[in-house]
What we know:
Order of helices and strands: EHEHEEEHEEEE
CATH class: Alpha Beta
Number of domains: 1
Strand order of the largest sheet: 2-3-4-1-5-9-8
Oligomer: single chain
Helix content: 10-25%
Strand content: 25-35%
Number of strands: 9
Number of helices: 3
Distance between the termini: 12 Å
CATH topology: 2,3-Dihydroxybiphenyl 1,2-Dioxygenase, domain 1
Amino acid sequence: MTKNTTRFDHVVLWVADPVAAAAFYEKAVGLETIRVAEFTEGKVAFPSIRVNEETILDLAPHSFAPRMKMLPGSADSAGHPVNHVCLSLPVDAFDALRARLEDHGVPVSDIDTGLSGARGNAARSFYFRDLDGNVFEARHYDD
């Protein structure tokens, strides 16, 4: 696994019942579940599904929506099938993307550190919207 190439890290899906959704993805689709027990014990906000060694699907309950404050209006995405798409980039591409977005007047969130993803905790991440309102997260991992 290479941490410094552009690729999908995770996609967050809104679901009515994260445990039932995890069971579907495990049983009907054949994917590995992650953190289901921790979710049911209240230790994590949502369970995940491993797509491959580098990509996961997070199964966010609709009740998680009020916590989505990275951009104004983000909580309004609850009920839509996808909350946001995360792109993992090399550090120089991460910095270049943020600069390009700012140069084009695209609002970006503050930088977060240590957010969990498919390959552990990211060094830095931020959020932005495309022209259609789709929310993207950009992140990079330490080398």
